[in-house]
Amino acid sequence: MPKGIPVVPSIWLSNFTGDDRLCYVSSPSNLLSIVQCGKPCKQPSGSQPLSLLIFTILTSAFVSETTSILITAGPTHEPIDAVRYIANRSSGRMGIAIAEAAARRGHLTTLLLGPSHLSHDQSPNTSQTTVVRFQTTADLQLLLTQHWPYHDVLIMAAAVADYRPAPTSADESHAGKLRRTGKRISLELEPTPDLLAHLAETTRPGQTVIGFALEPTGRLMASAADKLKRKSLHAIVANPLETMDAETVTATLLLRDGHTLTPPPTLPKKDFADWLLEQLPLIRRYSVAE
């Protein structure tokens, strides 16, 4: 393999070079200078059209500068009373790994972290990362409203509850503790706010929103594609259900134009976070073009 790194992994340039070659550059900060080409070879599987290369070259200077990235991570806890709550098994490991990868790259990073037992790594880049904790969906909604206007990229890796206990006339704030009576009780649930749909209304041109879809494998890709379109995202990570609370991930990245990118399978979440951030030039081309 020639020295240097690909402009974009598996970019097929036969239309550009005329002789079936993959082109490389000496560094990601010098994308306009293609200095070395590989030998003629067969087209790689899963390769992308030349347009991705062109957009990457035009936008890489933009994303290679310091970018402000807002990341959400962890579960939400929706109170039943002052003691009990509805939650999920999310550990926050993925979002924390993305925040640490962003800080390592020099990006100004804000991590909105839910009630996870994990914590942000105390690395030398901690000074570039602001961590703000939340408990409920309402807490996160408020934090997103406050922080999103001042960031370039949002990566919504938090596992936000779809439902929460509905307030009742007898206990509007879920205060106190429900006492055991030995009888059955009914718990009424109401939908939580759709945070991504709300943000779509306030996202300005040039901002980039990346979502996550966690579904059983059988309906994963269809659900992710639907969510990508319905919530006006620039990209979405299709995450199989087995990913939750695991240390590894086998995921697929869906882009707004219908292309998909697939990293090596069963990656540690730290390595997947690095891979995802390497795709930012491809993802941000949609928001730059808006």
How large is the count of helical segments? 8
> What's the CATH H-level homologous superfamily of the largest domain?
CoaB-like
| CATH fold description of the largest domain | Rossmann fold
Spatial separation of the terminal alpha carbons: 36 Å
* Morphology call: globular
Please, what is the average pLDDT? 78
User: Fraction of residues in helices?
Assistant: 25-40%
Judged by helices, strands and strand pairing, the structural class is alpha/beta
Q: How many distinct domains?
A: 2
State the strand order across the main sheet: 8-7-4-9-12-13-15-16
Oligomer: single chain
Query: How many β strands by DSSP?
Result: 17
Q: Runs with pLDDT <50, length 5+?
A: 1-64
In N-to-C order, the SSE pattern is: EHEEHEEEHEEHEEEHEHEEEEEHH
CATH architecture of the largest domain: 3-Layer(aba) Sandwich
User: What does the largest sheet look like?
Assistant: 8 strands, mixed
The CATH C-level class name of the largest domain: Alpha Beta
Strand content: 15-25%
Radius of gyration: 21 Å
